[in-house]
Write a structure and sequence with these properties.
By secondary structure, the chain is mainly β. 12% of the residues lie in helices and 54% in strands.
């Protein structure tokens, strides 16, 4: 009985480096792996790094992207284990077979798909410039190009003003967070008095929290500020009202990756 107990306890060593924000714990992945690899042999080492839609699993110098579709816990760990067996083929307990979860495993891509979003936002001018933008991002390695195009109307603030907004720039993604720097152009149309049309130009910075939802959809919560190189003043009813030097803004919406 003692000999049998010692043999049963001698499990193959698993070394799992689990990154922050992984949707499962080390034990859940270890349990899913042990039923899929040989019981004896050299230690198995895996690295698991969380991404915005799943994880990247690495072993033996290779890696796989696993899109989890919102799964977490043991369900997510089983799907990651299915990806890991491809990287550990020589160590399999049995040859891999087709499984529903394997359709979510893809080779790592340097340039994932472009995305498009719709963001409702409010900027602080003399009142609130409320409106919406269409946001397009195109990844290139660790960076992405971004374009925001939209418009809004000034609510309160003493001016009848409507305007567009164009932000074009670059950014980088850290987990669920986008950090961006952009050139900003805001054409405005003022209808008070004789009216006026001008274009404000400047630069801006913003951050976007992207929370994954099912079916390649993400909830976006955004905030930033635009600083302008020029300022225009208007006289309305004897009062001087000016466009801002700096306009902080906040927004929320959804983003889709085709």
């Amino acid at each position: 009985m003692l000999c049998g107990s010692r043999a049963a306890a001698a499990e193959r060593a698993l070394v799992i480096e689990l990154g922050a924000n992984a949707p499962f714990v080390e034990r859940e992945l270890a349990d899913a792996l042990r039923v899929r690899i040989a019981a004896t042999g050299e230690p198995v080492k895996l690295t698991v790094t969380a991404t915005d839609r799943g994880v990247i699993v690495g072993a033996r110098g290779g890696s796989r992207v696993v899109e989890l579709g919102g799964r977490a816990g043991a369900d997510a760990a089983r799907l990651v284990a299915l990806a890991a067996v491809d990287l550990l083929f020589d160590d399999l307990a049995s040859a891999p077979s087709s499984a529903p979860g394997l359709t979510a495993v893809q080779p790592a891509r340097d340039n994932p798909s472009w995305s498009i979003g719709v963001i409702g936002n409010a900027a602080q001018w003399t009142g609130t410039l409320a409106g919406a933008t269409i946001d397009v991002t195109v990844p290139r390695g660790a960076w992405f190009a971004a374009l925001d195009v939209g418009g809004g109307t000034l609510v309160g603030g003493g001016l009848h003003l409507s305007g567009g907004v164009v932000r074009t720039g670059i950014g980088t993604r850290v987990g669920w967070l986008d950090l961006r720097a952009s050139a900003t152009f805001v054409p405005i149309d003022v209808t008070d008095g004789a009216g006026d049309f001008t274009i404000l130009a400047g630069a801006g910075a913003s951050a976007r929290l992207r929370i994954p939802l099912p079916e390649r959809i993400e909830l976006v919560i955004a905030g930033g500020a635009d600083a302008f190189a020029t300022r225009t003043e208007y006289s309305v009813g004897g009062a001087m009202i000016a466009t801002p030097w700096v306009a902080p803004w906040f927004g929320a919406g959804i983003e889709v990756t085709p």
